[in-house]
Amino acid sequence: MLLALCLSNGMSRAAQFGQLDDSFSRVFSDASGFISNLTDAPDGKYFVSGTFHRVGAVRRIHLARMNPDHTLDASFNARLSAVSSILKVMVQADGKPIIHGALFLADGTVLPPVTRFTVDGTVDDSFQLPPNLGSIYNVTLVPASQKIILNGLLLPTNNVASAVMIQLNTDGSIDSAFTSAIKRGPSIRIEPVAGNKLMLIGSFSLSLTTEAWETNSSSRGPRPRPSDLPPAEPQPRSPSPLRLNADGSVDGTFTNTAIPEYESIYPTPAGGIYSFLNYSTLSEGNTNAIQRFLPNGEKDLSFAPTFEAGFSISTLMPLKNGKLLVLLSRYNETETYDYILQRLADDGTVDLDYETTTTAFYSLATDRLELPDGSLLIADNSLKPSGSHKNLHKIHSDGTIETEIGPEFITYSSPSELVPTSDAKFYMVKSDAPDYRARLSRYLPDGSPDGSFYASTGETNSLDSIKLLANGDLIALATSFGSYDRTLARLNSAGDVLRQLNEGESAFYFNYGSWDAFPDGRVIVGSSGNSLEPSPLIKMFTAEFEEDPSFNSVLHTNRASFTLIATPDSKILSESYSIPLLILSAGSSSSSGEVQYFYEKFLSEGSPDPSFQPGTNRSFSSVFDAKNRMYIPHSTTGGRGSAGRGRDFREVTGNDLPSASAIPPVQRFLENGTLDPYFNVTLPANSSAYRIWVQKDGRILAAGRFYNADQTKISTLIRLLPDGTIDESFSPPPGEVVPINAIAVEADGNILIGGAFDQIDGQPRAGLARLKSIEQPQMKNLTFTSGGISLQLDGNTGYTWLIQSSPDLSTWTTISTVTTGTETETVELPAPGSGNKFYRAVLAP
């Protein structure tokens, strides 16, 4: 007979709390990286930025420099953390890259939102961004001067918002010789053009008055108004597009009066303008589909392109040689799109020397680069889904396409959901290449796939938003791949579909609204929309997926969207909002005005809960603890390492910069909806929580971005004590800071984390890892006694444990329940009987 203790967390104690579990090493397959920017560099090299972890076999996080032959330039390594996000890459004439984004080094060091690196990838300390600069929206490198234009809600002096555009010298200091004529308009597209001038495109004003800003902020013409309001007075024309001189003053030699309103605009290299109405169906002989304007703003009558009727213009790309690439699309009889890429000569005629395959790509997005030989490098987001999604591709100067240039750009897609079971297994929802369809799988405690589970909802369905029921069944949202048709499916523990909620009126609810499930299998579903007639907002369905006639369906009017939560006490929490609409031409609409939020709680029969008094106007995307208290994570923006977006600039009055959010990253609300005054999270400003999980002992795990006191470092996983203070005994792995977007606590207290990471503390962990728990006690000294056996639980007092036995490490039976009252608790167990016996302790529910 064998008697054994299951020491799944090893023999050591507090030093391992929160540390990596070496026994769990599940590794998932590679996924396609996402390339967002391609940028010229000297000597024919170029930078690639986006979301990736490897370039070929070499580890590069989000940024890489490539050689002219499209191999990796191994001499450059910025050593960024994967929590970084890059908005733009600009390269100086000396080869140093300037990066705009939310930037963090691998060790969590916070970098300024505009940082210059040396040619080998180290941070260039000779470039110092001014302190307290405010919110930076766009960054532009001026090639002629090598200076930098910043656009946003800026604080260049005295911490008072007094500029939306400033220029920096090459060392990062403010260029006092540049005085922008633009007074309002924090989000402007700025394009350097010939003559060391700047072309500005967007919504902005030359005046600081509110009236001027209201006129010019939303469009280049009069604002559309609801039909029940009187006609608007004539309003002055917005100055977009506008050209500035090198000192920031308005270039009086350019006029925009001939340029049509409401059209897409691209500057020409010479300082003129291409203008077109994108996605508008072309008619035969229409020479105004694309118009070109000279550097003085007058229409260029020598440019008169014509296109075949029925096509529409998707996008343009002016080339350095003065020609123009045009991507055309047409909806065909097979209900798909045909695409044609044409190159136009200087007079607008089609360049017949340019022949390209029209079925390989469908866009010319920002991830494109014109190479010195006239060829065009494009990333995979320009390809149709049937194309490669890991490589760059080249359109040669004659129009022929060469696919899969250079090495693969690899990332690791992360789980979107982790749901532990009571028997130490866990469900995971994850999307992988090539189709990125959400797949539901179950895994054994060691991370290997559980072959006894297969979700039989059809190969064309994605399964996500899963809810685990008390009896072990699952309810999941099934979406038909390639469409928006959705159904709720109930699956048993083997993955067999027991029933689906997809008949009649109910289909409307989970196609366009929200749903949740109670542990007993009852389902609440709701609709959303903008109907002016009252319609049911929430309905209840039984565990058999039949509409519950005893539930008082809630009505609503003009609710735009909402979220439903089934609370632990069998009530229903509803968060919804409505947006006033502006009726436009052709029956379309646009949102405007203040968003109105509605927070309501309903009893199990559908009537309002009179005791609920909501104490927040934030999102209710939340979790609950055993006392039915609600925890809400909050995400903020700003801080040294962010792009500094802050509030939407249209909300800003008087050009004042919005203050940093005072809302903590985690809040707790009592059952009646009021804020819990005894829960106080003392994390520095700008910290954000994305996912939270309340442990059974009341401590709170939070994944997000958490700054230290002086905002120079971040971490991505913390644990709070029940009062909101930091749990200092929880120490996640000290290695590279990794992004975490899914967390779950297993029955034994161990922690599953999922994210777009490829390693933790130097050990390979592609998207999923397990951390050891502080709760797991040390089991030791298993000895025979008269009539039974005795063992000891060492450490972690005050918790209730289930002592379980198993003959085969597969089937476990609870034989005792123990609440530890001392540092070393002795547990008396009955005689084991015949055969082998294994023993373990798991945290009680």
Which terms summarize this structure?
845 residues, 4-stranded mixed beta sheet, 4-stranded antiparallel beta sheet, 2 helices
Structure commentary:
- The protein has 845 residues and is mainly β.
- Helices cover 2% and strands 37% of the residues.
- It is built from two helices and 60 strands.
- The strands form 19 sheets. Strands 1-60-57-58 form a four-stranded mixed sheet, with no helix packed on it. The protein has a four-stranded antiparallel sheet with strand order 2-27-5-6, with no helix packed on it. A four-stranded antiparallel sheet has the order 23-24-25-26, with no helix packed on it.
- The longest helix has 7 residues, at 210-216.
- It is elongated and about 105 Å long.
Label the structural class.
mainly beta
- Radius of gyration (Å): 30 Å
Helix content: under 10%
How many β strands by DSSP? 60
Distance between the termini: 31 Å
Percent of sequence in beta strands:
35-45%
Unreliable segments (pLDDT under 50, ≥5 consecutive)? 7-16, 210-237, 503-512, 581-593, 638-660
DSSP summary: helix tally: 2
Largest sheet: 4 strands, mixed
The outline comes out as elongated
User: What does the average pLDDT come to?
Assistant: 79
Spatial order of the strands in the main sheet? Answer: 1-60-57-58
Secondary-structure blueprint of this entry?
Elements: E1 3-5, E2 31-32, E3 34-40, E4 46-51, E5 54-55, E6 58-59, E7 63-66, E8 85-91, E9 97-102, E10 114-116, E11 134-142, E12 147-154, E13 163-168, E14 188-193, E15 197-202, H1 210-216, E16 242-244, E17 264-267, E18 273-276, E19 290-293, E20 312-318, E21 324-331, E22 337-344, E23 368-370, E24 376-378, E25 392-395, E26 401-405, E27 409-411, E28 417-420, E29 426-432, E30 437-443, E31 461-468, E32 474-480, E33 486-491, E34 497-501, H2 506-512, E35 514-517, E36 523-526, E37 535-541, E38 554-556, E39 561-566, E40 572-578, E41 581-583, E42 589-591, E43 596-602, E44 623-624, E45 630-633, E46 666-669, E47 688-694, E48 700-707, E49 714-720, E50 742-745, E51 751-754, E52 759-760, E53 763-764, E54 768-771, E55 778-785, E56 788-794, E57 800-806, E58 813-819, E59 824-830, E60 837-843
